């Protein structure tokens, strides 16, 4: 196995890659271990969604290599990213692969590890705060709640074939909660699948753009209004969608209206 013990000094060892979670964008949400890794890195290979304040924390003089991926837009292939990781690590320098959020959540982590191990390159993982955690905090809700849901589903709206299929019948049940990553362009697809499988048109949907950042925006919607509300909002930043959750203020207004 190529993973090193957590108490070993990784920065003193060549042919090593640290997979570091940059969190949702607020530099104050970066872990201390992640910050230390950035200060030690000779090469930082970073994703498009990593915020500028996080990049500014990297060691002065570090080689900064952008490998941003953008849905339906120009991007480096996974094979190109893998080759960059291997090439820099084989030079014996300290390499950080900096990923937005948490590297283990929709981060193609396994594919990159699989490229390193045959080359004898060691690796470790520094977790980060994933977008779902930052976004649910922004709307003042909990991902799970007694009497409502005992599980939450993290799902992507896209897979290698296009829009991703899921267990829509289960997701459409009242009280279910799902955090949908990369869902902006798939909103109409998600809306249609949910309604087709029996979800109420009044099912709450929350969209959080740029979670934790100064330009954070929250859109409170429903399945029935989802596509129209997103079109009106004109989102341009990274966004996470919650199925089955309303922002706390909107939920309270709805409950008060029902009570009246």
TrEMBL record:
Protein origin, superkingdom: Bacteria
Please state the pathway this protein functions in, per its UniProt record: Porphyrin-containing compound metabolism; siroheme biosynthesis; precorrin-2 from uroporphyrinogen III: step 1/1
Residue span, Tetrapyrrole methylase domain? 17-226
- Protein EC: 2.1.1.107
Pfam families per UniProt: TP_methylase
Could you list this entry's UniProt keywords, alphabetically sorted: Methyltransferase, Plasmid, Porphyrin biosynthesis, S-adenosyl-L-methionine, Transferase
Query: One MF term in GO for this entry?
Result: uroporphyrin-III C-methyltransferase activity
Q: Does the keyword Transferase apply?
A: yes
**Is the keyword Thylakoid in the record?**
no
Return the InterPro entries for the record: 4pyrrol_Mease, 4pyrrol_Methylase_sf, 4pyrrole_Mease_sub1, 4pyrrole_Mease_sub2, CobA/CysG_C, Siro_Cobalamin_biosynth, Uropor_MeTrfase_CS
According to its UniProt entry, the protein's GO biological process terms are: methylation; siroheme biosynthetic process
User: What family is this protein classified in?
Assistant: Belongs to the precorrin methyltransferase family.
This protein's name = uroporphyrinogen-III C-methyltransferase
Report which gene this protein is encoded by.
cobA
